[in-house]
């Protein structure tokens, strides 16, 4: 089944009110949630548009029916590349984060980890997960993924925190399910998601076994509160604003207060040995998703910078051209890393095809850290107007409107109306609360840079490089290049 965006919205508006903004309890029809719902609307529209058939849709591995690609478990490199392309296409329309990849990455982490836990412990989590996935596909659900716990004192393990709620944990185990409490934070999209997928955020030890918990819960479940922080572009008057200004998002502190999770929705219950594995499965899948969204964010920043240069009539100046090329490097390096991660990925025992961790992490690390530099390029080329421009109303009414409409034109080839639209757009992209959100998201979303460093330190073969140096230094006589020689793209022979 594929829902329309209207059906998605109707389902949301029927949910119980458990959202709080600025100290007030509000419904899902509150206007501050709307920009995020509009973004999700794009993902429903694309799946129903025949032009994007096979890109925005896929065939369910559990029902055999057509589903939204965001609910699909990738089966091969092509699936991963399609996901990457879909993110870029959707995110370009939204002007940034499309917000669907977290749920997708959460589903993938559950699919792989439940299978591996069953193989080790003889449990039946994977079948449970597949039953849940069938419902997910049949209802065309959308989920956010709540991995990040509030974490309290960073130097203490979950079980050693003063407040046990600093990490979501099992309070009680019953025959028919579990009861959980605790806080997750920075959870994007939760107030307009059907479901919340919960996975652990870190490696765990035996003493942390109550914190080894993964499950899925309806976003309005009894005992779940969503303390929401919406973020928009500066101009949010939907009727007058450009398409870009309809969009935004929300992040939440998700509070679990003795929430009952029925057994059929529990996918990890105290298997602390798999804490690190499931945390990394989500994070690495998410870092591959980033190779689709990062190019889109760079596309938007590049476009805004090129337009600002034109509005300033400096588009042919050499330093501007040089700066624009830096966006191309950031965008396409991220995209290339995503393709490499897909082509050199691996089939897991669950059947899910998983991106190559090295390429996914390298792409995320290098291009995520470029984000402030990219904003700097835009700021430099746009000039101070990006932060000091009068409000739109001053151009539309009042004593100064005629003078301001003359003032706004810098390049005589552009009309006052076009010039105003360009500078309002550039202001929104470069100097709004949404701009700050993208800057912080570029650094921390999908894991702080140190997490990618740790992932690379875990998986990268530094010994191989040392052996190379020993050979070149004349210490060893043989150079072992068998690993490089044997590195084949997955399904390599079929690609020839
Ligand atoms: C815009 C945005 C959207 C997000 N959306 C989601 C989402 O949808 N779902 C989700 O689950 N998460 C989401 N996140 C959370 C994101 O994954 C985290 O911000 C990220 O993993 C970093 O965690 P943190 O914010 O707790 O920072 P911290 O982990 O506290 O990091 C702060 C600093 O402390 C250091 N540090 C932390 N612990 C230690 C330690 N033990 N020893 C030494 N140094 C340490 C870190 O290296 C870093 O330098 C989102 C974040 C952002 C910014």
Quick summary:
This protein has 496 residues and is α+β, with helices and mostly antiparallel strands.
Characteristics of this structure?
four-stranded mixed sheet; binds flavin-adenine dinucleotide; single chain; 496 residues; six-stranded mixed sheet; Butyryl-CoA Dehydrogenase, subunit A, domain 3; globular; 14 strands; alpha+beta
Fourth CATH level, the homologous superfamily of the domain at 280-457: Butyryl-CoA Dehydrogenase, subunit A, domain 3
Compute the gyration radius: what is it? Answer: 24 Å
Q: Low-confidence segments, ≥5 residues, pLDDT <50?
A: none
| Morphology call | globular
Q: Assign the CATH class of the domain at 280-457.
A: Mainly Alpha
The CATH topology assignment of the domain at 280-457 is Butyryl-CoA Dehydrogenase, subunit A, domain 3
Mean pLDDT, as a whole number?
95
Largest sheet geometry: 6 strands, mixed
Total DSSP E strands: 14
Instruction: Return the CATH architecture of the domain at 280-457.
Output: Up-down Bundle
Beginning-to-end CA distance, first to last residue: 36 Å
Class by SSE composition: alpha+beta
Q: With helices defined by DSSP (H or I, 4 residues minimum), what is the helix count?
A: 18
Strand order of the largest sheet: 2-1-10-11-7-6
Unique bound compounds: flavin-adenine dinucleotide
Note the beta-strand portion: 15-25%
Fraction of residues in helix: 40-55%
């Amino acid at each position: 089944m594929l829902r329309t965006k209207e059906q998605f919205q109707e389902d949301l508006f029927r949910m119980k009110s458990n959202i709080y903004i600025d100290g007030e309890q509000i419904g899902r029809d509150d206007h501050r949630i709307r920009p995020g719902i509009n973004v999700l609307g794009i993902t429903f529209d694309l799946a129903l548009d025949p032009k994007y058939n096979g890109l925005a849709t896929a065939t369910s591995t559990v029902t055999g029916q057509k589903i939204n690609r965001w609910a699909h478990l990738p089966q091969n490199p092509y699936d991963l590349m399609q996901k990457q392309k879909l993110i870029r296409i959707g995110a370009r329309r939204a002007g940034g984060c499309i917000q669907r990849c977290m749920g997708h990455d959460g589903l993938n982490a559950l699919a792989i980890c439940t299978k591996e836990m069953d193989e080790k412990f003889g449990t039946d989590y994977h079948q449970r997960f597949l039953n849940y996935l069938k419902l997910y596909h049949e209802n065309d659900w959308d989920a956010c993924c709540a991995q990040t716990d509030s974490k309290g004192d960073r130097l203490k393990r979950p079980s050693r925190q003063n407040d046990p709620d600093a990490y979501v944990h099992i309070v009680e185990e019953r025959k028919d399910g579990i009861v959980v409490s605790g806080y997750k934070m920075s959870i994007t999209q939760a107030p307009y998601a059907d479901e919340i997928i919960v996975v652990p955020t870190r490696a765990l030890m035996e003493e942390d076994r109550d914190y080894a918990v993964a499950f899925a819960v309806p976003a309005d479940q009894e005992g779940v509160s969503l303390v929401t922080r919406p973020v928009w572009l500066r101009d949010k008057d939907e009727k007058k604003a450009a398409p870009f200004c309809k969009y935004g998002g929300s992040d939440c502190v998700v509070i679990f207060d003795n929430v009952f999770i029925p057994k059929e929705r529990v996918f990890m219950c105290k298997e602390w040995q798999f804490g690190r594995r499931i945390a990394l499965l989500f994070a690495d899948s998410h870092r591959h998703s980033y190779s689709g969204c990062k190019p889109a964010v760079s596309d938007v920043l590049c476009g805004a910078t090129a337009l600002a240069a034109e509005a300033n009539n400096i588009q042919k100046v050499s330093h501007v051209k040089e700066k624009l090329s830096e966006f191309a490097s950031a965008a396409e390096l991220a995209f290339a890393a995503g393709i490499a991660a897909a082509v050199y990925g691996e089939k897991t025992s669950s059947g899910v095809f998983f991106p190559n961790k090295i390429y996914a992490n390298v792409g995320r690390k290098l291009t995520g850290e470029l984000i402030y530099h990219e904003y700097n390029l835009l700021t430099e080329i746009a000039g101070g107007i990006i932060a000091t421009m009068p409000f739109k109303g001053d151009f539309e009414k009042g004593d100064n409107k005629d003078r301001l409409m003359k003032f706004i034109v810098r390049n005589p080839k552009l009309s006052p109306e076009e010039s105003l639209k360009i500078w309002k757009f550039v202001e929104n992209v470069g100097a709004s609360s949404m701009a700050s959100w993208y800057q912080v998201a570029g650094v921390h979303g999908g894991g702080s840079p140190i997490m990618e460093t740790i992932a690379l330190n875990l998986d990268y073969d530094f010994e191989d490089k040392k052996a190379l140096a020993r050979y070149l230094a004349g210490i060893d006589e043989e150079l072992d290049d068998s690993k490089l020689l044997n590195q084949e793209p997955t399904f390599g022979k079929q690609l020839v």
